[in-house]
Task: structure prediction
Amino acid sequence: MRILNHLLHPLSRFLVRRSCAWQRRSPLGDPALWGLAVSSAGHLSVSGIDTLDLVERYGSPLLVVHRSQLVEDCREVVRALAPAPQGSQVLYSYKTNSTPGILEVIHEEGVGAEVISPYELWLAEKLQVPGERIVYNGVGKTEESIRRAISLNVLAINIDHVEELDLIHRVARSLGRKARVGVRLGLASSSQLGLDVPGGEALEVCRRLASLGEHLELTCLHFNVVSNAKSPEAHTRSALEALEFLATVKSRLGVTVPLLDIGGGFGVPTTKNMTGREYALYRLLRVLPRPPSPDEMAPMDRFLGAILDAVGEFCASRDLRQPAILIEPGRRITSRAELLLTRVHSVKRRTGGPDFVLTDAGRLTLTFPAEFQYHEMFLAGRPTAERTRLYHVMGRLCTSADWLVRNRLLPEVRAGDVLAVMDAGAYFSSCSTNFAFPRPAVVMVEDGRERVIRREEPFEHLVGPDGG
Ligand SMILES: *Cc1c(COP(=O)(O)O)cnc(C)c1O
Result:
C-alpha cells in the first residue's frame, strides 16, 4: 500500500495540475451560455433577478428555473423534429425532472409525456396530458397502472420483459379494450432493459402480440441506449438495427409497425458525462476531467436531421413505409434551464491539501449527477472573478462521501458566499433525497418576476405517512 501511495502521489499531483490548466482555459466561463447575465452590482442574475436576492428571500439551497431558457430549449427540440413523418412526437422524460410547474411549461409547448412508473403516469394524467401524447415505459409497471394506461388509451405501453405481455393482455381483456402496445428492443447486451433481439425473444413476443390481436395492437418499437450523447452516431446505429427488426416483423408476421421510438439521451453542450477512465481517476485520485467544449455538440436540428436522413434512406432502400418517430428527450430540454444556489457555511483550511468548502448541497442529497458529470459553477456574487484556488466543495452530511466537486478551481471562496451550480435541470430535483434535510424550494423566474413553484418540503411532510 505504501509503495502504491508513493507512486500515486506524484502522479496525482501531475494530473491535478493538468486538470487545473484545463479548468483555467475552460470555455464554460461565460454565464450567457445558460442565458444568464451579470447585474450592474456584479452578481449573477437570471432574467433580471439577482441570484443573491433570491437566496436572501427563499433560503438555501434553492433551485431556480429560468422559464424563457426552458421554452427556448423546448422549442429547439420541437423544431428539429418537424421534418419527421406525420405522427412524429416529442415526449418529455418525466424522470429527468418531474417538478409539475416545469412540466406544465413543457406541455404548453405541445410536448407529451414519457413516463416510467405508476407515479409518473398518475402525474401525467393529473396534468391532463392526453393519452395520445403519453408513452408508458419502464420495468415496474403495476397492474393498476396498466389499467389506467389502457383506460387513457396511451400511445404505447412498451413491454420491457415477457411477463408483461400476459399482464397487459389480461387487463385489456377485462376492460374490453384494445391496448396499444410497443416492444422495447434490447439492442445492447450490456443492458438489462428490453427484449433480446439477436436471441429471438423480441420477435417471439411480437408473434404472440399479433396472435392476441383482439385486445392488443403492436404500435411501436422502442429503444433507449445512450446518455448525454454529443453526436448522433449511437442513435443512428440503433435506429438502423431497430428498422432491420421492423422489416423482419413485416416480412415474417405481416405486421407494419407505425411508430419508431428512439428514446432520449440527447446531450447538452454545457455538461458531459465522464468516460470510464475519467471517472476512475476522479474517484481514485480526485482528478476533475477536462471540461466540455460547447461547440463539440451540433445544434439539435443537425443532430436529429442526421438520424432522420439515415432512417429515410434505409426505408427507401427496403421499400418500407417510414414509421413516425417518437423521441424522449429529458436532459436536453431541462438541463440548462435550472440552476442550484447553495450557501457556503465555512471554508476549512487544511494543511497539505485543498481547502474544504462546506455548502448545503452535495451528491448524496441534491447533486447526484455531479458524481459522474462535469458541471460548471460560479460564485454568485463574483461570477467573473479570476479562478485562482483549488477546493473540495462538500455537502452538509457528516460523511466524506458527500462532495459536490473535488479539486475544483474557483475564485477565493469565503463563508457566506453563494455558489451557483449550472445545469441543475436534469436529475437534480428528481434524484434528490431527504437524507437528514428536507428537499429545497424551486422558484421560477421570468421577465424580472419570480414565483415559487415548489415550497421547501416541510418537516411534517417527512413524517406524514408514519404511524399508519
Ligand atoms: C431516462 C430516459 C429518457 C431520457 O433520458 P435523457 O438522457 O434525460 O434524455 C428517455 N427514455 C427513457 C426510456 C428513459 O429511461
Summary: The two ends are 51 Å apart (CA to CA).
